Amino acid sequence: MTATCNICGASDFGPGPGGRRSVTGDLPRCTSCGSLERHRAIRDTFERVTSCDCTDRNVLQFSPDPAVRKEWFGAHEVSVYEGENSLDLMAIDRPDGTYSIVIGNHVLEHVSDDRAAFREIFRVLKPDGFAFVSFPDPMRRSVTSDWGYPNWDDHGHFRKYGRDVIEKMGEELPAATILEYIAADPVTGVEDLVYFICKGGPITDQLLGVLPAGRVSIGSSPTEKVQ
Ligand SMILES: [Zn+2]
Distance between CA atoms of 18 and 124, rounded to whole angstroms? Predict the structure, then answer.
């Protein structure tokens, strides 16, 4: 069976950045749209989530991302770093409760105070809103390593997240219900951890209904496995 890119429909793949293969040994980069494992895993996740009907939800997204289609949502605002509409994740220049959905894929490792960023993302969510966040490879280490400055040998990242990031978010957001879900790239089979930060209302149960398995953290209580 030929694998098909779930973003553009093409079926021709080449080496990733630096000539790399995926951890499963496959060619990871779609030669048509340029997507990598994480883009297709997130696309797959969002196709499940948008089955909950997001057409009346407004979205704030940090950084453009081929995984996300603006057509899924009622309104889609994208903050582009150093662009005209650039928003500071650590002090989002928007009122409380503005957005139904906030999306931040591979952006929180770029800010000096990610705990402030988590609080700000939660603050601008509507009472029935949720945020979707992902990080570079938290599955592959257990504990986050934070060195406190932008490491330009590592894309300017301040830290490498580990699987403890769900506890870190829970400590910072005691009123949130946080869902951790394993997303998989349909082309290479590579798995990635992604997170939903739910503020309240029926959305938590709706998400649990469309996502097949995961861990749930409610506030700073210990995480529990579900399903
Ligand atoms: Zn593609």
Answer: 38
* CB distance 40 to 186 below 8 Å: yes
Nearest to 220 by CA among 118, 152, 148: 118
Residue 220: what pLDDT? 59
Question: For position 71, which CATH number holds?
Answer: 3.40.50.150
Domain extent, residue 51, equals 37-226
> Taking the CA of residue 118 as centre, how many other CA atoms within 13 Å lie in the half-sphere pointing to its CB?
23
Residue 7 is assigned to a structural domain of this protein: no
Cα(12) to centroid(ligand 1), Å = 8
pLDDT digits (tens, 9 = 90+) for 165-175: 999 999 999 99
Classified as helix, coil or strand, 114 is: helix
- Which residues surround the ion ligand 1 when the cut-off is CB under 5 Å? 5, 7-8, 10, 30, 32-33, 35
Summarize pLDDT for 191-225 with one digit per residue, the tens.
999 999 999 888 888 888 888 766 777 665 656 66
**Could you give the 3-state DSSP secondary structure of residue 165?**
helix
What's the domain count of the chain?
A: 1
**So what's the pLDDT on residue 226?**
59
